[in-house]
Amino acid sequence: MKPDVYAANCPTRQILDRVGDKWAVLILLLLRAEAMRFNQLRRTIEGISQKMLSQVLKSLERDGLIKRRAIATVPVTVEYSITQLGLTLAAAVDPLRDWAEENLKDVLAAQRRYDAQQKQEAASRDPVIPAQRRSRCRWRRE
Fold it and tell me: In this structure, what are the phi and psi dihedrals at residue 55, rounded to the nearest 5 degrees?
């Protein structure tokens, strides 16, 4: 029976989760060029926390997409490299990175148009509330 990615329990979804994870994609694309240490990855990928990097690396290793190698030094040095399977995924997602870079201006322009339209529609739906009338009651000073 062929996998059905639209079925809730289809294991293919786990793989698609990896493809849809921006951190996983960025890590794979970096490791495609060279093996890297944990802190080197963390410094290169701006915005990723140490905890998130650790979690994504473990997931990629579990999926067979990267390899972790501990080097006997004091302290222990850990190096990550991409596997053959990981290279095939990196090759598949690299065109998505290219597309994002090539179409960034158009996407940002579309977002601005959408946001402006939403703002305009919200303004036409919600009537402007007139300024509160001044109360006829006055505070007494004692």
Answer: -65, -45
* Token representation of residue 33: 């060029």
Integer Cα distance of 24 and 49 in angstroms: 13
**Dihedral of CA 37/38/41/43: which sign?**
negative
In the chain, DSSP assigns E strands to 36-37, 66-71, 77-82
The 3-state DSSP composition of the chain as helix, strand, coil percent (nearest 5) reads 60, 10, 30
Residues 117-136: tens digit of each pLDDT: 999 988 887 665 555 555 55
The rounded distance, in Å, linking the Cα atoms of 89 and 94 is 9
Residue appearing with tokens 């303004």:
123
**What distance in Å separates the CA atoms of residue 8 and residue 12, rounded to the nearest whole number?**
10
Q: How confident is the model at residue 10 (pLDDT cuts 50, 70, 90)?
A: confident
Structure tokens, 117:
């339209």
Nearest CA among 53, 47, 48 for reference residue 66: 53
90 exposure class (CB count in 10 Å sphere: 0-12, 13-18, 19+): buried
